[in-house]
Specification:
The chain contains 5 helices and 3 strands, in the order αβββαααα. It is α+β, with helices and mostly antiparallel strands. The chain has one domain: Sufe protein. Chain: A. A 3-stranded antiparallel sheet has the order 1-2-3. The longest helix has 32 residues.
Amino acid sequence: MSDQLDDFLKELQGQIYEETLRDYGQKAFDRWIDPPCMHTMENPDAHGRITGSCGDTMDIFLKFKEGTVSEASFITDGCGPSMICGSLAAELAIGKDPEELKKITAETILEVIGGLPEEDQHCASLAANTLQMALFRYLDQEASGR
């Protein structure tokens, strides 16, 4: 029985991988399998957290060094497309100064990833908005001298 279950699960996993690769493309698939930057961060300089209209929650953490993002990470309790977009938003933030971060939008994320199915495009907005919230909090702290 165990061998049959293992075979069934391997076949099911293979079908899921094939469908995901077909629907999302290689870049998104690779991020879904092994999302770069997916971890919490100790003592970030900035942190944004948003729960989207779909119910997914995303956190983005930023560390700055000499005015640019030296480290970025994210976590989400959401679906694969949320993981893909959060990963890309965090990765895009690295090496950017605040003015450059302001330019990272949902459209930027969708363009870099090569698009997503229409029903998943809101995940790019969730990631971009969470990144912008983290940036806003950083700028607010800097302005108030904290």
